[in-house]
Each structure stands twice: as structure tokens, then as C-alpha cells.
Amino acid sequence: MLVAFSIAPTTTDSADGSVTAAVAEAVRIVRESGLPNETNSMFTNLEGDWDEVMAVIKQCVDAVSAVSPRVSLVIKADIRPGREGQLTAKVERIESTLRES
């Protein structure tokens, strides 16, 4: 299962509207999970089975909830049982196709 998720508090770290500290804590939780992951400017991608992935996302929600009374969470999932290594394999297939064309 691949999951792309974005999490943010509705309150900010400072007057400039930054949510960096809360988001960084969520990313730390993801990285310490041991599951394959990557973070970009909009989402964190995570790979594992349903229970593993959802447990990590719940930890992230709990951490962000600790600093904000309201949390925004967006989740997109690609559920394909029996497949592993898709975090990179999907991109490699696309790159290979682009090189062939």
C-alpha cells in the first residue's frame, strides 16, 4: 500500500503563518517508523501494509494535535495487495517509458 498524506495544524508557529515545527515533528515520526518513505514540498509518501501505515498516520495526527486544537489531514492511497517496493518502482517504470519514447 502506498499512501500520500499531508498534515498541518490549523494554528501556526508564529505571526508569519509557519507550520514548520508541527510538520517537522510528523516527518520525524514517519522517518523513525522504519517504513519506506519520502517527503516533498506537498506530501509525505509512505509504504507498508494498512495497519502499519495507518498507525504511523495516527501518530502524526496525535503529535500535531498536541500543538493545535484542529488538524488538517489529506490522504490518498494506492491499495495493491502483494506489491512491495512501489514507492520507487512506479517512478522507475515511468522513467523507463519516457526513455523509450
TrEMBL record:
Pfam families: Thiamine_BP (PF01910). Residues 3-95 form the Thiamine-binding protein domain. Belongs to the UPF0045 family. This is Thiamine-binding protein domain-containing protein.
